[in-house]
Write a structure and sequence with these properties.
The structure holds 2 protein chains of 2 kinds. Chain A is mainly α. In chain A, 38% of the residues lie in helices and 0% in strands. Chain B is an alpha/beta fold. In chain B, strand 10 (392-395) and strand 11 (398-401) form a beta hairpin. The chains are: A mainly alpha, B alpha/beta.
Amino acid sequence: MPRKLATRKKRTGRKQAAPARRVPPKKPDPFEALAAASEAALGLPVEAAWRAGVRSNLRLLFQHAARIDAFELLDEAEPAPVFRA
Amino acid sequence: MLETASDFTWKTAADVVAAIAAGRASAQSVIESALARIRARDGLLNSFTAVIEQRALAKAQAFDEALKGAAAVPPLAGVPFAAKNLFDITGLPTVAGSKINRDAPPARHDAKLIERLEAAGAILVGALNMGEYAYDFTGENVHDGPAHNPHDLKRMTGGSSSGSAAAVAGGLVPFALGSDTNGSIRVPASLCGIFGLKPTYGRLSRAGTFPFSASFDHVGPLARSTRDLALTYDAMRGYDPADPVCADRAAEPVTPLLERGTEGLRIAVAGGYFKCRTAESVYAVDRVAAALGANRDVDIPEAERARSAAHIITASEAGSLHLPRLRTRAKDFDPAVRDRLFAGAMLPGSLAIKAQKFRRWYRREVLKLFAEVDAIVAPATPCPAPLIGQQTFMLGEAEFPVRANLGLYTQPISFIGLPVVAVPVPLSPLPIGVQIIAAPWREDIALRIAYALETEGVTAAMRPKDF
């Protein structure tokens, strides 16, 4: 029967480190996810070095879009895709 | 006695026509003089990307021959002009400020507006620098280099019709063609101190031009006088079935109406969102408003939201337009343009449709204002020309990125296709522009007001030192 090995705490002579704080899990960046999904779905060859610029522009567009989204329009509102002044 | 080449440097199109009509100049001498100026000075301005010397000289000689014994002189007889390089020019690829389109086959026909201008006697001398694919307010271009502002060569021309403004403000040609989607005629006209006309959406044919954002794309002239805007506009007007949004309207010439003055016109100043925050823009708007007796403000409702919607639709339409090139030639774009196009291509359609719905609402509300006023005065740009390469500017206490915000005051107007004349207020050391905005199809009103301001000396295209 194997002998049970006694375990002993190593003495290091150093103070014990404080228990690590729990780091909350990183909130996923929705623009990173949208950009990544769009890259794949649309077949866009976005290089790694360009991703921060694309995300920042996407974020800016969504800020503009939020202003429009907050504006109430009737369901019957017609879009103006072929616009005549 | 024939006029000498240097006499034409600061001549307007109307002056050139008068000189030819009086026999003081030939089309050939005028064109040779323009070509010599371009050779001598465009090294400083970087406004031209192609000069079509042989074609221009051949047209001038043919014009002079045809004029012998003719009963009348055409309205733009022998006037040299140039076009932003998104206009088709027979035999040249339509580069639209890009590297990618240099590989496109040469255009087989001129753009419709070039055809119409040449039919009225004007003579095309070349193609002009611009921001890549017109997605630009600065006049900077990584492929061709920036166009330089003739009032200070270290400064931006504004964009995207950068070369058009630089060539006109620098005296290389009396007028040029530009395009304006969100401000691309009015912004460079303001920064370079010249006049620019963005007509009503659907007024001038875009056939034979490279698009940017189809539901906002306009084309129009930049010039050093209101009369030249009117003369060239009248020569370009008219229905063209080749442009699906070009309106079929009766002839409404504006040149004969210029001298009617402003009496009886109800003119207001745009308040709220359009209240200026730099000393130069405050001075310019106040000076124009005072000269016109415009002492009431109107609030253009939801203008900030309109600008946001313009951003959304532009990004979405441009992203869709360039999708094939983004897939195959992404590395060949200007990085600043490429990142925005990628983001636009990724934008959900639901957001773009909501912006288009808002657009119809906004149009209806803004048009109500024109029941009470005939024209609205607003700043054209928030500040005079920034330095080339400058990233931000101050508006009041806040710092704003230059690239996205030079069109702060132009976007909410082109968003619903209203006609605008940008007029230059001569300030030292740098000019700045003011928008005269009218109801749809009332270019005549905006041009009459611009003409009155110019006649009174309130606005003027000042000749830059050394040009």
